[in-house]
Design a protein that fits this description.
Elements lengths: L13 E6 L4 H8 L4 E4 L9 E3 L5 E2 L9 E10 L4 E9 L2 E9 L13 E6 L2 H13 L8 E3 L7 E9 L4 E7 L6 H12 L5
Parallel strand pairs: 1-2, 9-11
Antiparallel strand pairs: 1-3, 3-4, 5-6, 5-10, 6-7, 7-8, 10-11
The structure holds zinc ion.
The site of zinc ion has 8 residues, from loops.
Length: 196
């Protein structure tokens, strides 16, 4: 079975982190690169996986996505195409708003979009999406992904705020985290519009 991809470096040399007091067999397994020993200390949001290549821990589930009350995403290129999605909690219902514009970064609230879709999300639909966000390891993404060597590229922005005011904010310019394609696919399915 293919191993879980590391959200930091994109490689698949990742192993589970095992907590607790380890015996000899577990030390040997760590030597063989089959797992990572996490120690006996119990903390909040302990990482579940470790990358043998970049040595980062991930899958901490720091953000309770089920409690997410706001999501803002936009992606746009210098050719003018821009997609944006806003998901807001209003009167106990999650409402997704998708906008598209072909003339520059015209996705701001004040601009007139060329296409607009407003959708009230079913609770199950929203919960499924939150689970998908977790599986994209969004809270393990870096703050910024930039490749400044390319001119005229694509820039994007993602912000997730939870009701307890945790904020996860990521932006990029011509560079993307390993799970970005999967994230776009999930978001596209949620709003019913292809975002690329
Ligand atoms: Zn890695």
């Amino acid at each position: 079975m293919a191993k879980i991809m590391c959200p930091c470096c994109g490689k698949r040399n990742t192993v589970p982190i095992v907590y607790g007091y380890p015996g000899v067999d577990l030390f040997e397994a760590q030597e063989r690169g089959e797992l990572r020993l996490g120690g006996c200390c119990v903390r909040e949001h302990m990482a579940k996986r470790f990358c043998n290549d970049c040595l980062e821990e991930f899958d901490c589930n720091r953000i309770a996505f089920a409690l997410t009350s706001e999501l803002t995403f936009s992606i746009g290129g210098y050719d003018g195409e821009c997609h944006s999605v806003e998901i807001r909690l209003k009167n106990d219902r999650w409402i997704a708003q998708y906008r598209y514009s072909s003339n520059g970064f015209g996705c701001a609230e004040t601009d007139e979009p060329e296409a607009e879709v407003r959708k009230i999300l079913e609770v199950e639909e929203w919960e499924r999406f939150c689970l998908q966000l977790q599986k994209c390891y969004v809270d393990d993404w870096k703050k910024e992904y930039n490749d400044n060597d390319i001119l005229d590229g694509t820039s994007w922005f993602l912000e997730i705020k939870t009701v307890v005011n945790d904020i996860c904010s990521v932006s990029g310019m011509n560079a993307y985290p390993p799970y970005f394609t999967k994230f776009l696919k999930c978001l596209s399915e949620l709003v019913g519009k292809k975002i690329e």
